[in-house]
Design brief:
mainly alpha, single chain, about 150 residues, about 0% strand
Length: about 150
């Protein structure tokens, strides 16, 4: 397999473009929420929309458009996408809630003391709405990519 073949894989290219766009969209949405520019969000997990959900739904849809929605590879990619979205909204979301509680406990323990503590990352997972927004973004942008860049 050559690098040229990889660069011509429409499902992969569409999924990567969707993933980058989902990360970029987080920046202005975070600004609207907090009124501060947080450039670190471009490389972080969590937030709106879910770039994980956008990436895997775009890949699965692109595979369906390429290989057929009745193909085994589409079935595998769809199951993979469901696992990723489930993990983003379930396990990682709960880990974020645990981090939030632990950070609150540490704050209560050290309040009034000059101790400096490192907080755990609280935004690890996604709400169902954030994951759904990622899935919709993945599907819509992949379809647009298919229309704009037809197979040669």
């Amino acid at each position: 397999m050559s690098l040229l073949a990889v660069l011509q894989n429409r499902a992969l290219i569409a999924a990567l473009i969707v993933w980058v766009l989902a990360q970029v969209v987080k920046l202005p949405l975070e600004y609207l929420r907090t009124r501060t520019w947080n450039w670190a969000i471009l490389l972080s997990v969590g937030g709106m929309p879910s770039s994980h959900s956008a990436l895997v739904s775009s890949a699965a849809y692109g595979i369906g458009l390429t290989a057929g929605f009745d193909s085994a590879v589409f079935a595998v990619s769809s199951v993979f996408a469901l696992i990723v979205v489930y993990d983003a909204t379930g396990i990682r979301r709960q880990a974020g809630r645990h981090a939030e509680i632990i950070n609150m406990m540490i704050q209560n323990l050290v309040e009034g003391h000059p101790l400096r503590q490192e907080e755990l990352r609280e935004v690890l997972g996604h709400s169902p709405g954030e994951a759904l927004a990622g899935v919709v973004m993945g599907l819509v942008l992949t379809q647009i990519f298919w229309w704009v860049y037809p197979a040669s």
